[in-house]
Design brief:
- By secondary structure, the protein is of the alpha/beta class.
- The chain has 10 helices and 12 strands.
- It folds into 2 domains: 66 residues; 188 residues, P-loop containing nucleotide triphosphate hydrolases (Rossmann fold), CATH 3.40.50.300.
- Strands 7-8-6-9-5-10-11-12 form an 8-stranded mixed sheet, sandwiched between helices.
- Strand 7 and strand 8 form a beta hairpin.
- The radius of gyration is 21 Å and the shape is globular.
Length: 268
Amino acid sequence: MPLNLLISNNPKTIEAVKNKEPCDVALSLESALIKAKHKKYDVVISDGFDASEFFDNAVNVKDYLKNAASDKKIKVFKQEVISVWSVKGGAGKTTVVKKLTEMFDKNIKILVIDFNFQDGGSDLSFLLDLPVIPHIGMYLKERTKESFFKNLIEYSPNISVLQAPPKLSFVKDIKPEDVENIIRFARSAFDVIIFDLPNKADEIVSTVLENSTKKIIVASGLVSEARRIKELDSDFLIVINSSNRQWKLYYKDFNCIAIKELGKILER
C-alpha cells in the first residue's frame, strides 16, 4: 500500500484525506521535512501552499481529492523552470517558446517571462499580439510581489506572460537579485515557468540559467553555433531548428533533438 504524507493543520482537510486512504500527517513544513528524513513517501500532499521546492513528489490537496474521488491515479507534476536560449539571433527561439507553452496540459499553469529586451518591443510580444502594457518595467518600479502579479498578462486561461517593455530604458537597472525575486514569486503560483532569453551571455542570463531545471539552446544548424556551444560549461538540451546535415557531425557531442521532437522535453 502506498504511504503518503499530508502537510496540513486543518482538521477538516486531514479528515477528508484520511477518509480516502491512510497517511501520515505533518502540521507544518518543518515537521514534514523531518518526517521525510526517516520515511520514504509516495506522495506529499500540501494544503494551501506549493511544496514542490522541497519535494519532487508534491501534489496540491485539491488535486489529490479530485483524483481520489474519480479513482484516478495521482499524477505528481514536478515544477519546472525552463530557459530557452540561443548563441545567435534568428534561430527560432521565440517560436520554440510559443510551441512549448502549447504542449502542456490545459490544467498546468504556465508563466512565460520575456527577457529578450530590445527597443521597439520583443518578438514574443508581436508573436502573441500582446498589448503594450503592462510589462516588466512596471514591476521594477515597485519590486513587490503584489506589483509582480499586477503586471502579468493573462494570454489564455492557463498561460500568463510577463512581457518585455517597448524600450530598453525601462529595464536599464535590472539586477540578478530582481531575477531571483521574479522566479520566487512565479514559483508560488505557477507549475511551469518558461524564460525567453536574449542571444547573449550576461549576469541576467546567467542567473536565469543557474535557477533553471531545464536549459534549452535553440540552434539554426550553423557549424559556428556548434563550435560556440561546445565551449559552454553546462548541461544543455539542443533543439535543432534546421535540416542542415552538417550538424549530424555534432550529435555525438551534444544532447540534441530536432524541432519536430520538441514534445520529448516534457518527457525528460
